[in-house]
Each structure stands twice: as structure tokens, then as C-alpha cells.
Amino acid sequence: MSHAAAPSLPAALAPDALLERLRWRYAVKKFDPGRKIPAATWDALEDVLRLSPSSYGLQPWRFVVVQDTALRETLRAVSWGQPQITDASHLVVFAARRDLGAADVERLIDATAQERSLTRESLAGFARALTSFAQSGRDLHAWSARQTYIALGFFLEACALLGVDACPMEGIEPAKYDEILGLTDKGYGALCVATAGYRSAEDAYAHAKKVRFPAGHVIERR
Amino acid sequence: MSHAAAPSLPAALAPDALLERLRWRYAVKKFDPGRKIPAATWDALEDVLRLSPSSYGLQPWRFVVVQDTALRETLRAVSWGQPQITDASHLVVFAARRDLGAADVERLIDATAQERSLTRESLAGFARALTSFAQSGRDLHAWSARQTYIALGFFLEACALLGVDACPMEGIEPAKYDEILGLTDKGYGALCVATAGYRSAEDAYAHAKKVRFPAGHVIERR
Question: Which domains does chain A have, with CATH numbers?
Fold first, then answer.
């Protein structure tokens, strides 16, 4: 069999079940501030972030989970005052690596050697490819930002599947986030946030029809 | 109840089931060329692409599904010859809008008015916000590219949930893709592709341990 599953692998979802859960999601404008995501569910969402794929497996990202109330207030002030920042159960800041250098290459080679019980020597070709990519002169922060948005997609879809509401938000002041969270010194730059929790019964947007262009406008078959 | 579900909404997934399916996925190096994704499953994956969230709901993307064998060969030649381009059941090219202008704003306002049975006048504030964003002077292709990577994340997670194998690939020559698929004239630029199908029994990478940095390296709790 070409598709052998591990004995414990849960069954694949029915396509309709997946689509129904994705249609259930929307960008929450008003969260129920009294309702918290259970710890086991949140832990899984953090694991989803970690499991997100990235090119070369470089994981050029950092996810800052902000639970401190005062810090959430501070961040709200540099997020156009949007209430989701403080009212949602959880807040994650998505930040991308500003640059990639020898240390990043080393870190991935080390992790690969360890996880797969390989020698560093056997990974020399991979290390050369990574080094060449890091030295290619392309805009590595822009590249890392794209990768980080894969993780954002992974996170939002996972929320919908686990019955957690969310709102991705680009309306933040990234430079202020970097300063407040000390991201610049660590070599990362904030891109956007995702708030997660449970929709308020008063959020009228929960009932608004989802707006998507017709398939023919976005999907082309060749 | 703050979290009322539509009567038909399928139950949320158990966190462990979601994680197991995400651990099952990997970037396939060798597909089984004889195995095709069933039409109903593929249709759902196209719907997943359409349902992907984007900032402002602008959907600044185009997904080109290439089924023509000769065209797949042509694209493989500008993708460093990687065999997945021709061997996978399906190939999707992810392209992002190069610029955003008045026509894009109009298109979204029209779609919103129609879907939600609203007058265009009632959407004037939204239209102004969109216009202001389009004229903000930021790099809109870079912005659209990030949004498109949300869709890539959505697609890859959906594949894993539906039991479809996939491989995201940035190793393509985007300018050649633009030329071959006529994307530039339509105002889009190719970013990357995703191949989807079923892993070959001979793909040794199916058994390689997934390499992820420890939680403490990528997740910071504040």
C-alpha cells in the first residue's frame, strides 16, 4: 500500500465536515470576555503553530503568547484600540526572523541531526544549500514573513476545527510591538496578531454572510 | 449561549486527532503517479482555497490548477526538474495580485453588497478604507504575497485532514511561470506551487522524523 497509516492515525475528515467548519469561522469583532479556551485546547493550538510547514524547514518565526492583562492593554493602545486585543481569551503575536545567518543554519542542522540520529557530516549538502540561500541576497525578512503567514493559516484553520473563534489582525503598529515585546533585539519583527476565544452573542458579524469571489474569479483550470 | 452552532455544524475535532493528522503530513518528495485525488475531494480543496481568510477580505490571489500533461512538463523544466510537478495528482500555482487599484475595491464592494443584500451607499466607509489602503504607498505585491501564504497554509492543513499528501515548493522560476501561464497580463505574479496526491511507498522521507525546534525556541509566553 502506498498510503500506509500509522496504527493510531485518526480517520481523514469528510470533505463536507471540513468545509462546514471553515464556513463557521469568521473574523470575530466582539469576543465574550468571560470565556476562556481550555488549557488542553490551547496547548494543541501551540503545537499546531510549531507543526506549521516552512521552506527548508527553517521555521523563521516566533510566536508570542500574551496573557498578562497589563501588557495586553499596552498592546491594545498600539493596535488602534481594537477591543479584541484585550477581550479575547488568547493573543498571539506573529513575528518573523529579520535576517538569516550562520547561526540559523547551525540551529537547523543541529536539530535535524539530533531528531533523525544523523551525523552533521551527512548533512553537509543540506547545510551548503541553506547557507547559499541565506547568502543569496534576497529580502530574507520578506521571505520569513511569508513563511510566518503559512503558520497564521495553519492556526486559523485549526481554531475553526477545534471550535475556537479567532480574529487575525494586521491593524497593529509593528514597530511599537517590536519595542514593547523586545523583538528587535532578538532578531524578529512583528507582522500581525491573532486573537482567539469565543464569539460574543452580541457580535452581529457572526451572522453576516461570508463574502468570497466566485470560483471562476480566483481559480483557473489549465 | 454565546457559541450557538448552526444545526448542521459538524462537531469540533478532538485536539489529539488534529495533531495526529498534522504529524502525518510531510513534504512529499516522491508521489505515486498512478493515484489520483477523487473529484469530490479535489473540489473541496478548491473550496478551501476560496474560503481562506485575507486582510479586508480582499482575496488578492489567483490559484492556477494545472492538469494538462504537456503544460506540467513545461513547468517542471522551470522548476529545477523536480518530479513532483509532473508526478503528483494535482498541481496548484499560488499567485498574488501585483497591485491593488480602484477595480479591486469595486469588485469587493460589489461582492459584499450582493452577498449581504446591502446598498453600495451603506458600504461607503468600507470603500474609503479600502481605497486608502490601496493608496497607502506600501508594497502591495508583498502584502498580497503574505495573504496568499495564508491560503497555502489553509490548503496544506486541509490536505492533511482529508488524507491527501502534499508538497509545497518555492523552488520554481516565478518569472517563467508568469510568462508560461500569462499571469503578468492578468496582474498576478507566481509565488510558489503546491503539489498534491499520494505518497509513493518508495518515498523514504515518509518515515523521517519531523524536525521542529523545541517549543521554548519559537513560542514565548508573556
Answer: 26-98+143-208 (3.40.109.10)
